[in-house]
């Protein structure tokens, strides 16, 4: 036995004697009981977090579980950082908005004569997005969308409503869980205002002061009809959940989606729309065929060579 093993053995014996001494003392049993309770409680919390959320919650010790619309704890299944909701809203009957749209329509009728560069850009924006009064018509959908969030998604921390300065007449501005944000608050370049383009506004939403790291963006005509949870939108294991309104069409007729990028060159998928079978047909042997780059000849720029 080497010196290292001797010192390890002595250390183990010393620790054993110390443990026996502590357990045999007046407070030994009490100390053992407290340690057992703490260990058991920690284990139960880990198990609860695992089964209720599918994972062990990394924020369980840091979050204020009642920091949400309903003001109650969602700890059993809310294993996430705070999540906010953002709306974009406009009042289509607002006289200033209608006047602004009409002004640019008149510029268009005049062929853009005497218009500044900024006005011409706004005119193109209106044309591109087909912005007119009917598009901005308000039927108070926002009122009922907010109610659906409070009822079915009470775990939401805060709601932000982004507008061009308009405020719904029925909105309770004293609610501490709701904030109205103007376009001027999030657009760094004020010369870009007024703005009628939804994509332009959406690309600035992350600049809302105090907004959560992850937030849900909704239009005012979006309603929840059943209870939802954060994992319906995001999970720590799989990231963001994406729901498609319709099936994604095949990239080419006869090309099954699972064939693309599967390591075999499939003739129906060997087109530019399928990225040439996800690269499978570039200098690789396929199912009964061998494709190699030969310039603008052959099948979609490839030369077919039978084996």
TrEMBL record:
Q: Where are the transmembrane segments?
A: 20-44
Cite the Stealth protein CR1 conserved region domain residue spans from the record: 81-105
Note the coiled coil stretches, chain numbering.
113-143
Mind naming one GO cellular-component term on file for this protein? Golgi apparatus
Q: Name one GO molecular function term.
A: UDP-N-acetylglucosamine-lysosomal-enzyme N-acetylglucosaminephosphotransferase activity
Biological process (GO) annotations held by this record are: carbohydrate phosphorylation; N-glycan processing to lysosome
Matching entries from InterPro entries are given as:
Notch-like_dom_sf, Notch_dom, Stealth, Stealth_CR1, Stealth_CR2
- Domain named Stealth protein CR2 conserved region is located at 135-239
The protein's predominant localisation is membrane
Subcellular localization, as worded in the UniProt entry: Endomembrane system
**Signal peptide positions on this chain:** none
| Ranges of residues in domain LNR | 249-281
User: Which key words are in the record?
Assistant: Coiled coil, Disulfide bond, Glycoprotein, Membrane, Repeat, Transferase, Transmembrane, Transmembrane helix
What membrane topology was assigned to this protein in its record?
Single-pass type I membrane protein
The record's family statement is: Belongs to the stealth family.
Q: What is this protein called?
A: LNR domain-containing protein
Please tell me the species this chain comes from.
Eutreptiella gymnastica
């Amino acid at each position: 036995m080497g010196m290292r093993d001797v010192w390890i053995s002595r250390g183990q014996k010393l620790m054993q004697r110390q443990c026996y001494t502590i357990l045999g003392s007046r407070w030994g049993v009490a100390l053992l009981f407290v340690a057992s309770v703490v260990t058991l409680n920690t284990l139960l919390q880990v198990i609860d977090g695992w089964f209720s959320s599918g994972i062990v919650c990394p924020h369980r010790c840091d979050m204020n579980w009642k920091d949400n619309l309903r003001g109650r704890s969602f700890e059993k299944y809310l294993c996430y950082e705070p999540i906010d909701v953002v709306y974009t809203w406009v009042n289509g009957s607002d006289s200033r908005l209608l006047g602004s749209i009409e002004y640019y329509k008149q510029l268009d009728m005049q062929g853009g004569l005497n218009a500044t560069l900024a006005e011409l850009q706004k005119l193109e924006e209106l044309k591109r997005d087909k912005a007119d009064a009917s598009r901005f018509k308000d039927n108070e959908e926002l009122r009922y969308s907010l109610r659906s969030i409070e009822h079915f998604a009470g775990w939401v921390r805060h709601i932000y409503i982004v507008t061009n300065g308009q405020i719904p007449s029925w909105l309770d501005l004293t609610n501490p869980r709701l904030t109205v944000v103007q376009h001027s608050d999030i657009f760094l370049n004020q010369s870009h205002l007024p703005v009628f383009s939804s994509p332009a506004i959406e690309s600035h939403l992350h600049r809302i002061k105090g907004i959560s790291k992850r937030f849900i963006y909704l239009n005012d005509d979006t309603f929840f009809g059943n209870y939802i949870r954060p994992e319906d939108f995001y999970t720590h294991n799989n990231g963001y959940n994406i729901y498609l309104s319709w099936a994604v069409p095949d990239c080419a007729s006869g090309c099954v989606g699972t064939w693309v990028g599967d390591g075999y060159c499939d003739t129906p998928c060997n087109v530019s729309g399928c990225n040439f079978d996800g690269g499978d047909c570039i200098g690789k042997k396929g199912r009964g065929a061998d494709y190699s780059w030969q310039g603008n000849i052959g099948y979609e720029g490839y030369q077919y060579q039978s084996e």
